[in-house]
Design brief:
alpha/beta; Rossmann fold; 7-stranded mixed beta sheet; S-adenosylmethionine-dependent methyltransferase activity
Length: about 220
Amino acid sequence: MHTWHKEAEKQWDERAEWWHQSSEEMWERGSRKTIIPFVTTYMRKDGYIADIGCGDGYGSYKLCEQGYRVIGLDLSSEMIELAKKQRPHEHLHFQQADVMNLPFPDETFAGAMIINCLEWTEQPLAALEEVRRVLKTNAYVCVGILGPTAAPRVNSYRRLYGEAVICNTMMPWEFEQLAKENGFTLIAEEGVYKRGVDGSFLQQLSTELKQAVSFMWLFMLQKK
């Protein structure tokens, strides 16, 4: 795991500037534009929210704009440096941290947002358990898991050649089952789809089939 996460840190350091160039577009008009409204529908504004895998901090800032107190956490030191350049706010802070070993006492956070982060861990269950540890009882967490149509899944393709990769191709339904079996209750869920997907057609599908054609699947979970 140490090797996996050190390599993940290195690769995201290298990608930080590239990610930063498209971050605003993703959160304002692209694949992440529905996340903040989804969070605000369910998550209260008591205490601090952890944005785990915050990247360059744009999503953290948008949460803060909605009245949340936020601590953005990311494995990449380069991402955190970019995040610290976000518009200053007294209730917005950033620090480097690995989701596998969060530097906070038990039951620190009133909620969490984790978007496309758990797929980049070697042991997603251990990461989920660490998230659960730092959440207060009954706290909500919004988790975004890449769907089967997401282009970033090319990051795990080379495993078919027996090569070491740092991306787990975890399906949304797999994560849902993992969460339910390990201390979380599913409160709500919704899909994010590529342009061109017919919304009226989606309404005819079961949740499982909607997940199968999704770009990303959003879960709102509550710690039991």
